[in-house]
Amino acid sequence: MDEDIRHICDELLLPRLFRKETEEFGICTAESLMAAKEGIKTEKFFRDMKSVLAEKDLNLAREKLLVVIEWREKNPDANIIEMFSEKVYNDIRLSADFVDDYIKTALGKSNLKEGGQLYRDMEEEDLMLMSMIDKCKDIIMESNHLRSAVGNFDYHSFLDKTIRHFHSLVGNESGALEMEKLFIVAGRTQAGKSAVKGVIQSLCGLLRIPLIILTNGVGESIDLHAKLVDLSAGTLVKKEHIIVGKSF
Length: 248
Known about the structure:
Layout: H1 3-12, H2 16-25, H3 30-35, H4 37-41, H5 44-49, H6 55-74, H7 80-83, H8 86-105, H9 115-123, H10 126-140, H11 144-149, H12 155-170, H13 193-207, H14 218-231
Helix pairs in contact: 8-10, 10-12, 13-14
């Protein structure tokens, strides 16, 4: 274990047994820690490591390492020993907690009493705003099945614009009617519109807002319902909440 990783472990107060296990598993440098990111995110790293530590201790260590990885991605040239500290970790955690709370309690809500202030707090730092957008994208597109289904659709740009729009609604203190949560998805037949609706469906699942899709005809409704149920796999949307409405 090199000096950088030892310093990180000291600042994060990681258990000595955990340090020994991670070293034996191959995480000895900052580079090897970054390379293990995906495994740590999916908990595969800890399953493969077969640690003797309690699950709660492993989860805490996992969360701490992910914060370090996030910091390192944003500061690739920083001297870890000089620049990373317990205070830096705590500041990142506070920012992350605010982002989580913002997504859960503000984003997607209308006419919040404190909406303007929450919007301004989020706008204070570009990094925090980008962190919020990236967090939303990760959750919305967490499903491998959904990512595969969208094909060449540029969901990154689509979600970036969409999340920024919902974010602007939080700060809309005037309550203007033109600031509606309205999507129009248009395209020729077989143009992949269902996959786009699947992305919007996952977005609405995250923000806990209703999604109503109008189609032309009973057959089309039944067909689209089946597609949306399929696209909900691995997202926050439960298939029993996807229903075909009555004809009007």
